[in-house]
Design a protein that fits this description.
Strand content: 15-25%
Bound molecules: adenosine-5'-diphosphate
Largest sheet: 6 strands, mixed
Radius of gyration: 15 Å
Strand order of the largest sheet: 1-6-5-2-4-3
Helix content: 40-55%
Structural class: alpha/beta
Order of helices and strands: EEHHEEHEHEH
Distance between the termini: 12 Å
Length: 178
């Protein structure tokens, strides 16, 4: 299916695009966002700041994605996806998280990219339960691969062992279902 799970730091990956778990301002933050900005260098922040604001402080609402260059990263592009903050699951969190994956894959297709790597969007400070998020990441990426003829290599990056195991389980469930 061309979906890999990889344990490590997403900023080191030599792929066409890495996805950032950004916040609405796109002006950087902690976690994977901070790691991506420090590895990419100041050019990334400058490019993000030039993206238009939809309203004060919001360059990208939850569920949407914006593309920039990779600057000093090995990756050619950064896709800034804004995941939902977990509020218990009744505020459309699952659909918003699914959109982050689907819109990133659409953008990769439009840009004719061949490889894309995702962090566990929303699973850090945004508090999304890991197993539920892993099921969404796997469902969206598997559905994408099955419904698109043009191959894209998808890497689900696990920064820790718990994330790695959650992805393994979700992929095993998906494999059984088909
Ligand atoms: P969010 O605000 O969307 O929750 P976080 O950056 O806090 O984003 O966390 C998202 C996920 O990214 C977490 O699972 C965290 O462990 C992981 N993460 C943090 N740093 C890195 C990194 N350098 N590479 C890959 N994943 C990372």
């Amino acid at each position: 299916m061309n979906i890999d799970i990889w344990h490590g730091d997403i900023t080191t990956l030599d792929v066409d695009a890495i996805v950032n778990a950004a916040n609405e301002s796109l002006l950087g933050g902690g976690g994977v966002d901070g790691a991506i900005h420090s590895a990419a260098g100041p050019g990334l922040l400058a490019e993000c700041a030039r993206l238009p604001e939809l309203r004060p402080g919001v360059r990208c609402p939850p569920g949407e994605v914006r593309a920039t260059a990779g600057h000093a990263l090995p990756a050619r592009h950064v896709f800034h996806a804004v995941g939902p903050v977990w509020h218990g699951g009744q505020r459309d969190e699952a659909a918003l998280l699914a959109n982050c994956y689907w819109q990133s894959l659409r953008l990769a297709e439009q840009m004719r990219l061949e490889s894309i790597a995702f962090p566990a969007i929303s699973c850090g400070v945004y508090g999304y339960p890991m197993h539920q998020a892993a099921a969404i990441a796997v469902t969206e990426t598997v559905t994408w691969q099955k419904s698109h003829a043009r191959p894209v290599r998808i890497v689900l990056v696990a920064y820790n062992t718990a994330t790695f195991k959650a992805y393994q389980q979700a992929l095993a469930v998906a494999a059984q279902a088909h």
